[in-house]
Amino acid sequence: MQNEMEWRERFEKLEGMIEELIRRQAVKDWYSTEELARILGRAEFTVREWCRNRRIHCQKKANGRGKHHSWAISHEEVLRIQREGLLPLERTVSIPRDIN
Hints:
3 strands, 3-stranded antiparallel sheet, alpha+beta, 51% helix
């Protein structure tokens, strides 16, 4: 009886691990900032800042939660980030004015 319970526990544990692996490997067309943060091991705030500062290619998309849109990152962009890293930070160039 106890041996059967041990096997059942082991089976349930393995089943949970397999489900987690499948969830991690699922390829989507678009990822949220939360999902990308999990994939890259970063904070969601950091990913949102990358979007806001145009360090990654992303789009604002309706998420069905009211009038506010959330950032969405394509699967191709996720692969690009993993391969090449962040885009360079855009710098604004100020033109000095003549002081007379």
